[in-house]
Amino acid sequence: MIQFIRLDHVLMCIPEGATAQAREFYRDVLGLAEIPGNHPSGAIWFQIADIQLHLREEAGSSYSKRHPAFEVANLDEAKQNLASKGLAIEYSSDIDGRERFFFRDPFENRIELLQFVD
């Protein structure tokens, strides 16, 4: 049996030629710290709590419901912050014990933020 320890990183694809726009969105809009380095395939890496987000240019695009989900300390504050920056907030089905919402980055990647509740 495989004993998984934790989520290490998530890779999301962005359109070819969009690295500068991705850097601006993830660093300046979401406030993530970029991990410097010469990463494989020209990827840019960001730190989110104890995991990494990797973004890499790739040809083609597909509007999908696939997504990473990140737990946050205060979901209402996160929602207000993103909405104030013009991001559309999306909702989905309810899940017992957690509140959540979704938004999309400029490349149509779907991202979930959640907070566990009693």
Automatic annotation (TrEMBL):
It holds the Pfam family Glyoxalase. It comes from the Bacteria. Residues 6-116 form the VOC domain. InterPro entries: Glyas_Bleomycin-R_OHBP_Dase, Glyas_Fos-R_dOase_dom, VOC_core. PANTHER family: FAMILY PROTEIN, PUTATIVE (AFU_ORTHOLOGUE AFUA_3G15060)-RELATED. This is Phage portal protein. It comes from Spirosoma arboris. The lineage of its organism: Bacteria, Pseudomonadati, Bacteroidota, Cytophagia, Cytophagales.
